[in-house]
């Protein structure tokens, strides 16, 4: 049985030119969707159906895509959750965070909350789907993977470690069937009130490299970070856990 | 007597069969897409094109040109007279003697064809082509003996029944090859298809010494892009494939073939013939597309390729890698005596792979995506395009609005090696007080790479946006150090220039422009005192634009006598850097740049002068020890006598 898979796509932004493009992670989401569902993959976008970047996604060989038409100022989540509730869907694929707009990375979580589905964050691959259970590989830092099984339906955010999006071809992109659905958007007032400014690079914690030899440096660059100072609290009371977090924040000078 | 009517009947029957075959062949070409040609003017121009343009190419091989004139001339003349004498029974003595003369001429020619076929070079196809000289000799000898009694040299009825039988067999063999074979796909097909190909050539500008090298724009929109099936070619392209004589001149010149990459231009054209006629390539008797010894897979050898007019070409007829091996250097087109357009066909098929299948190999996909998102192939920030000239004090068009010369910087702006060429050129222009400006960050990739990789949509978009920028400013000349951008601006942008942004503008390569400056005495140059120097002709400057002399004149102005390579000027070997070949990077036995560097080394030169940043990069990529590689602008800048104020 082929699962019903929906890939959510957004308008990306090229880091060098700032120009609209097929978003890196969403492209991988479509690629993974094509692997799971082939031509039956549904691709969903909220926004302007005239946006030319959508054709870059379609150029991956999509016969059709659905656009929930709404204004730029409107919130995408209500429209999405309304639409997804109507359909019978097994897996929703999103990027981890969008390259434009709020870029909060909250869409999968907000959707999951509304739909009452689990979220599987940072997926590298979905290996198999059998009897309503999917075997999923999660991407961990430094190329590590964790294998988990998840019951359908679920929402997965696709990590950069997933297979890269295939080449986008001009012809199929031009011929895609755009199914535009009108939605009543709620204006996202918080987003509208935001002011955008070019990002400043975040200050980085200085790392003193103690390694003396090239081999040590190589190890330092590649080895799994040794937590050491971390501590796992499972059985303590909530107050104790909160206290531990509070202490850490003071120690790290986050709050004074 | 039996001999009186037998030849006439045989001639008429074979002539009729030949015509039927020819009509069938024409119907095969008509499966292609419509393309407007001028039927009458084309046919009228055909003999001139044959005698002038085609013969000009064949004349490079004196032995073959004389042989062909004798054989073909003798045959055409004798065929006309044979019909006159044997079908219409013109019995004047002078006509029969003329016929004898024509036949003897043809016999001589056929003898030399035969002689060359005794020990044929590997580039020639064997198979039916080995039979051809024998058929030609049979034809000529048969009709000579047949005509001797008619001319009154021998008595009527000489030789009796036995000779009659032998001669009848001769008539069937000779005319079978020449008339029947012409229509039904034998080696003589080349005469019939070739003549029509000359008449209805897709680039008539090439005749009469002209040049037409810009690719034709792809039609965007619709159900498919590019050429997927043989029937997607224009009908006169199909006709062109059929004109091939399998001489293998293209094979001998092709850099990809020599490097062992899976492309043999001759086989490619024969594959197209298989495609248009349907069937397999089992009858092909020439060199195959090279197969790498390590990765030999079954099904790649001759005999396994299958095709039909409506079958997808890359599904069974040829491998996609064959198409991606081409560097678009045009050596094959330049060399082809039938003036077949290999590069057009290859790019047409690449367009399908890129724009429909999304299947550009290796870095192709990444590079195209970068070009779309950042207007340069490596994905650099468009706002950093002018960084190279931070210390050059170059005026930007946005502020200056007009200048004599617009310097088209090209994507070399992002590459540190190419920047040395750019700086040298700016130094020379400043020394000559040229009124120059650049577009700065407003410039975009010329689209050359996208177009050769088959993405004509991106090329057209870039061309239109570049033209829109250019139309805002006024200038008399565009000069560029990149022959690829030069070719696009000069030969390919005109198709999209609706605003007339380049109207009346002279597009020049920097070597041409510098040569003008030197000739006008605007640059004072010291004599070059280094060692021996050779010059590498970039394909897009030489074969694409015919500029062979300006770079050599410049070197001469420094007192350099260029030690020419064996393959130079129109026969220059590609550096391997064109047509997106470094991007698609199809593996072969060796690298094209290494072979070119061997050509350089063979002259004993210590320095190879180049006129292209791409060639510079490719040749400098060859491991040392090797001769030094420098752009002509760099050599000139080194010899510049700067006035001290």
From TrEMBL, chain A:
Keywords: Electron transport, Transport. The keyword Transport applies. InterPro entries: ETF_a/b_N (IPR014730), ETF_b (IPR012255), Rossmann-like_a/b/a_fold (IPR014729). It comes from the Bacteria. GO terms for molecular function: electron transfer activity. The keyword Electron transport applies. Residues 30-168 form the Electron transfer flavoprotein alpha/beta-subunit N-terminal domain. Belongs to the ETF beta-subunit/FixA family. PANTHER family: ELECTRON TRANSFER FLAVOPROTEIN BETA-SUBUNIT, ELECTRON TRANSFER FLAVOPROTEIN SUBUNIT BETA. This is Electron transfer flavoprotein domain protein. The lineage of its organism: Bacteria, Pseudomonadati, Pseudomonadota, Gammaproteobacteria, Oceanospirillales.
From TrEMBL, chain B:
InterPro entries: 4Fe4S_Fe-S-bd, 4Fe4S_Fe_S_CS, Csal_0991-like_N, Cys_rich_dom, HdrC_iron-sulfur_subunit, Helical_ferredxn. GO terms for cellular component: plasma membrane. The chain crosses the membrane at residues 6-23, 69-88, 94-114, 135-154, 160-180. Residues 235-265, 316-345 form the 4Fe-4S ferredoxin-type domain. The keyword Oxidoreductase applies. Gene3D superfamilies: Alpha-helical ferredoxin. Residues 284-306 are annotated as: Disordered. Residues 294-304 have a biased composition (Basic and acidic residues). GO terms for molecular function: 4 iron, 4 sulfur cluster binding; metal ion binding; oxidoreductase activity. It comes from the Bacteria. Keywords: 4Fe-4S, Iron, Iron-sulfur, Membrane, Metal-binding, Oxidoreductase, Transmembrane, Transmembrane helix. PANTHER family: IRON-SULFUR-BINDING OXIDOREDUCTASE FADF-RELATED, IRON-SULFUR-BINDING OXIDOREDUCTASE FADF-RELATED-RELATED. This is Lactate utilization protein A. It comes from Marinomonas spartinae.
């Amino acid at each position: 049985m082929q699962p019903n898979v929906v890939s959510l796509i957004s308008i990306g932004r090229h880091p060098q030119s700032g120009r609209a493009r097929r978003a890196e992670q969403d492209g991988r989401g479509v690629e993974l969707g094509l692997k799971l569902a082939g031509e039956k993959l549904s691709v969903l976008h909220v926004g302007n159906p005239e946006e030319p970047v959508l054709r870059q996604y379609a150029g991956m060989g999509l016969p059709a895509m659905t656009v929930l038409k709404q204004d730029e100022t409107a919130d995408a989540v209500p429209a999405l959750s309304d639409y997804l509730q109507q359909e019978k869907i097994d897996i929703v694929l999103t990027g981890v965070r969008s390259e434009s707009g709020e870029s909060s990375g909250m869409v999968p979580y907000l959707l999951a909350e509304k739909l009452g589905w689990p979220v599987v964050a940072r997926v590298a691959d979905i290996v198999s789907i059998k009897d309503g259970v999917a075997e999923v590989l999660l991407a961990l830092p430094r190329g590590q993977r964790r294998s988990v099984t998840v019951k359908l339906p679920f929402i997965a955010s696709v990590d950069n470690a997933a297979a890269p999006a295939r080449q986008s071809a001009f012809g199929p992109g031009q011929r895609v069937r755009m199914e535009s659905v009108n939605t009543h958007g709620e204006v996202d007032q918080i987003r509208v009130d935001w002011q955008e400014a070019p990002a400043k690079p975040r200050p980085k914690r200085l790392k003193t490299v103690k390694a003396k030899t090239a081999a040590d440096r190589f190890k330092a660059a590649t080895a799994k970070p040794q937590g050491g100072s971390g501590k796992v609290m499972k059985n303590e009371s909530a107050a104790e856990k909160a206290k531990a977090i509070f202490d850490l924040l003071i120690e790290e000078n986050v709050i004074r | 007597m039996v001999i009186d009517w037998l030849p006439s009947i045989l001639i008429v029957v074979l002539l009729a069969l030949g015509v039927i075959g020819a009509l069938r062949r024409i119907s095969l070409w008509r499966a292609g897409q419509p393309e407007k040609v001028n039927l009458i003017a084309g046919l009228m121009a055909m003999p001139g094109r044959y005698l002038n343009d085609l013969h000009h190419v064949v004349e490079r091989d004196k032995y073959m040109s004389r042989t062909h004139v004798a054989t073909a001339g003798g045959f055409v003349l004798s065929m006309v007279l044979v019909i006159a004498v044997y079908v219409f029974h013109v019995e004047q003595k002078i006509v029969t003697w003329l016929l004898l003369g024509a036949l003897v001429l043809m016999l001589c020619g056929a003898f030399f064809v035969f002689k060359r076929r005794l020990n044929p070079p590997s580039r020639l196809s064997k198979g039916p082509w080995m039979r051809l000289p024998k058929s030609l000799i049979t034809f000529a000898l048969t009709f000579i003996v047949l005509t001797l009694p008619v001319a009154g040299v021998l008595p009527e009825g000489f030789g009796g029944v036995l000779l009659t039988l032998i001669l009848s067999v001769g008539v069937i063999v000779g005319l079978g090859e020449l008339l029947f074979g012409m229509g039904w796909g034998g080696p003589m097909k080349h005469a019939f298809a070739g003549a029509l190909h000359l008449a209805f050539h897709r680039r008539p500008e090439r005749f009469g010494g002209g040049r037409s090298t810009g690719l034709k724009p792809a039609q965007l929109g619709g159900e498919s892009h590019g050429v997927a099936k043989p029937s997607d070619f224009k009908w006169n392209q199909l006709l062109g494939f059929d004109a091939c004589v399998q001489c293998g001149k293209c094979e001998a010149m092709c850099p990809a073939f020599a490097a062992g990459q899976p492309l043999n231009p001759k086989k490619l054209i024969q594959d197209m013939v298989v495609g248009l006629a349907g069937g397999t390539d089992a009858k092909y008797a020439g060199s195959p597309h090279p197969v790498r010894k390590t990765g030999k897979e079954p099904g790649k050898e001759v005999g396994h390729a299958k095709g039909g007019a409506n079958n997808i070409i890359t599904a069974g007829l040829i491998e996609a890698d064959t198409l991606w091996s081409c560097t678009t250097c045009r050596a094959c087109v330049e060399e082809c005596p039938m003036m077949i357009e290999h590069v057009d066909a290859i790019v047409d098929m690449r367009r399908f792979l890129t724009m429909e299948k999304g299947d550009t190999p290796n870095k192709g996909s990444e590079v195209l995506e970068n070009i779309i998102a950042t207007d340069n192939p490596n994905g650099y920030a468009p706002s950093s395009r002018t960084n190279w000239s931070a210390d050059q004090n170059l005026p930007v068009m946005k502020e200056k609005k007009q200048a004599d010369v617009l310097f088209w910087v090209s994507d070399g702006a992002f590459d540190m090696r190419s920047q040395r060429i750019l700086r040298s050129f700016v130094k020379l222009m400043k020394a000559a007080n040229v009124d120059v400006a650049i577009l700065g960050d407003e410039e975009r990739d010329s689209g050359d790479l996208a177009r050769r990789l088959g993405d004509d949509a991106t090329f057209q978009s870039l061309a239109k946006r570049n033209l829109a920028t250019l139309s805002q400013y006024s200038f008399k000349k565009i000069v560029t150090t990149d022959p690829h951008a030069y070719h696009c601006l000069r030969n390919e942008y005109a198709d999209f220039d609706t605003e007339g942004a380049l109207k009346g503008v002279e597009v020049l390569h920097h070597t041409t422009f510098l040569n003008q400056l030197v000739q006008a005495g605007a640059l004072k140059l010291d004599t070059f005192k280094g060692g021996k120097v050779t010059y590498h002709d970039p394909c897009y400057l030489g074969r694409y634009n015919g500029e062979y002399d300006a770079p050599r004149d410049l070197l001469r102005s420094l007192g350099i006598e260029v030690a020419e390579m064996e393959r130079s000027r129109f026969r220059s070997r590609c550096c391997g850097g064109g047509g997106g070949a470094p991007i698609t990077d199809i593996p072969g036995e060796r690298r094209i740049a290494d072979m070119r560097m061997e050509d350089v080394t063979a002259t004993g030169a210590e320095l190879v002068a180049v006129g292209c940043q791409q060639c510079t990069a490719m040749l400098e990529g060859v491991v040392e020890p090797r001769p030094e590689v420098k752009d002509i602008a760099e050599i000139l800048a080194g010899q510049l006598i700067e006035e001290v104020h």
